[in-house]
Amino acid sequence: MNKKTSYSRRDAIQRADEELLAELGYKQEFKREFKPLEVFGIAFSIIGLLPSIASVLFYAIPNGGGPAMVWGWAVASVFILSVGISMAELASAAPTSGGLYFWTYSLSSPRWRNLLCWIVGYANTIGSIASVASIDWGCAVQVMAAATIGSNGTFEPTNAQTFGVYAGVVITHAFVCCLGTRALARLQTVYVVLNVLLCLAIIIALPIATPAEFKNTAKFALGDFTNLNGWPNGYAFILSFMAPLWTIGAFDSSVHISEEASNASTAVPWAIIWAIGIAGILGWAINISLAFCMGTDLQMLYNSDQPMAQIFFNSFGQKGTLVIWTIVVIVQYMMGSSMLLAASRQTFAFSRDSALPFSNWLYRMNSFTKTPVNTVCYDAILALALGLLVFAGDQAINAVFAISIISLYIAYAIPIAARFAGKNVFEPGPFTLGIFSLPIAMISVSFMFFTSVVFFFPTTPSPAVEDMNYTIVVLGGTMVLSVLWYYCPKYGGVHWFTGPVSNIDTKSVERSSKDFDINDEEQKSGV
């Protein structure tokens, strides 16, 4: 293919992307610099795998040990894939940065569409910012774990010191995410390569390097269920799902860069599916390797500041662990920058439709970088605020991990359910499930509802006040405030919020009349 033909094809794809976006009601404001591999890259880099597993290993070890790590991961991965497939079908039909709340409005009954759109938009925004906070907090903890290993265990970080590192991570991420779209797109390929190489290195090297006293039998690694928290074994096994659910999460990130992606209606859905599928397989292999090489003293691992760092220390020694851990920290850092990038695009889209406080300030494109710098700074500030929960105790900061899952699942489940519960005419995009759409959607929504309820419970049956699960307080309080803001007399969203608003013709604000939406007669009837 000659250069001229290549340019012609690229131009044709870009025109098609812009025309589809215009049908959805929005003008092209971003540069479409993300190639399909890079669209996949942002979802896969946010998943992160090895550093993500390191961040949440403390959920799996006390709730089953090796069997929970291996079989819990396998079971949860199948359900996560079903959620991703359902979302991919919607993303193919309407690839826009607003994604989830846009789909909710388009597919819901007119009687409820504004409120549901509002709830999904806030849940998605909160979940994205909580994901930034949880990833960057994991990075800060990993940095401190390296310092502890380097000091032969003499250094014990305080919460204030860890928060200081966390603040530094968040602030530097804000600078990175203010770069131009092309630079941000190219970084995703680097992230993918480093992620895969790190995963393969651990899968292969850990069993080779682990001394005999830390190698486990197949019976212990795959069959001996170790319950350290006191819940019945079945329920403990379900609690271990937090590890894969958080790790293989935030895959809606590909949706939020739809307006920066080339051939978005195809690239975005397949990016979601490939990211979940590859992460599921590689993550399973990593967990098998860990289960066979972590020794039998699971209580000691659980009590350590960073269980995976301790496993590496037992296998590779101090110097080897520091080398590997440095790469883990770098990959975790990359995860955080990709997550802040995706979160800022969700915030930009929601403020474009005037739904957030300070929307007029947030909905601005920087004239130099051609990126929404204001929303990057806004999300970074809110992530810093979430990090302050560490001063309320370990369980309070751990609630951020649960919030990032539950709030995103609220945002995922509503548009998937609305497609079949509301009166609408859904026109699928290039990626479609056909007759399997409904059964897969039912599985996805049921799973998300079930796990969301489970993760409101504390980690132990009879917790002390400081060990309570504060997810319901933080998430519930935030969502209640958003609903109160919606119904606020005179000033609330109920008086002015009308869902996604076209910005193509500022003189006559119109919504998209694409077949994805309900027809005019149904809208007038208010059913």
End-to-end C-alpha gap: 53 Å
- Estimate the mean pLDDT confidence: 86
Number of strands: 2
- Overall, the morphology is globular
What fraction, in percent, of the residue positions are helical? 55-70%
CATH fold-level topology: Amino acid/polyamine transporter I
* Uncertain stretches of 5 or more adjacent residues: 506-527
At the fourth CATH level, what is the homologous superfamily?
Answer: Amino acid/polyamine transporter I
3D architecture notes:
- This protein is an all-alpha fold and 527 residues long.
- It has a single domain (30-516), classed as Amino acid/polyamine transporter I (Up-down Bundle).
- It has helices at 3-23, 36-47, 50-60, 66-93, 100-107, 113-150, 159-176, 181-209, 218-222, 233-239, 242-247, 253-256, 264-293, 298-303, 307-352, 359-362, 373-387, 394-421, 437-454, 471-486, 520-525; strands spanning 63-64, 226-227.
- A two-stranded antiparallel ribbon has the order 1-2.
- The chain is globular, with a radius of gyration of 23 Å.
- The N and C termini lie far apart (53 Å).
- Residues 506-527 have low confidence and may be disordered.
- It is found in: Membrane.
